[in-house]
Amino acid sequence: MGSKGSKPRKPSHSQHLPKVGTKTENRRLLREEQHAIGETVGAGSVPWGLIVALTIVVLLVVTGLVGLLMR
């Protein structure tokens, strides 16, 4: 048996989940689903804003190169 001051049974950061069917629970489930889909696609840790910004920059560069070649 461990002493009284040893490691606690539950972590101090544990908290109860919201009740099933509530707005909070539905939001949590939706966020988990979106995160899982992002992980599957391979973009789980990359912010979507960064992806959009890089796509716009690449399109501008490609358009500029095509414009220079058409002269």
As residue ranges, the low-confidence spans are: none
Q: What oligomeric state is this?
A: single chain
**Spatial shape:** elongated
Mean residue pLDDT:
83
Distance between the termini: 83 Å
Which class do the helix and strand fractions yield?
mainly alpha
Overview of the molecule:
With 71 residues, the chain is mostly helical. The chain has a domain at 23-70. Helices cover 59% and strands 0% of the residues. It is built from 2 helices and no strands. It has helices spanning 23-41, 48-70. The longest helix is centred in the last third of the chain and has 23 residues, at 48-70. The termini are far apart. The model has no long low-confidence stretch (mean pLDDT 83).
Quick recap:
With about 70 residues, this protein is mainly α. It is built from two helices and no strands. About 60% of the residues lie in helices and about 0% in strands.
